[in-house]
Design goal:
This protein is mostly helical. The chain is built from three helices and no strands.
C-alpha cells in the first residue's frame, strides 16, 4: 500500500504494466529458465483494521467490552 493510500490506483496500473519486465529481471537475476507470473493486488488490511477499530470504539461496544465502568 502506498504511504497514506495516495495514488493507489496509479501505482497498481504501473505495477501491472511492469509485471512482464519484472518477471524477466527476476528470472535473469536468479538464473531461472522460467519465472512465475507476477500478480499485484492492493492490500486492504489497514482499511479492515481501521474499520474494526472504529467498531470497537463505538459506545455500545465499549460498554460491553468494559462492563462496570460507569454508563
Amino acid at each position: 500500500m502506498p504511504l497514506a493510500g495516495s495514488n493507489a490506483d496509479d501505482i497498481m496500473v504501473g505495477l501491472r504494466r511492469s509485471a512482464v519486465f519484472l518477471k524477466g529481471r527476476i528470472a535473469r537475476d536468479l538464473g531461472l529458465r522460467r519465472a512465475p507470473n507476477l500478480a499485484f493486488e492492493l492490500d486492504r488490511t489497514f482499511d479492515q483494521a481501521q474499520h474494526i477499530a472504529a467498531l470497537l470504539a463505538r459506545p455500545e461496544v465499549e460498554r460491553d467490552l468494559h462492563p462496570g465502568r460507569g454508563g
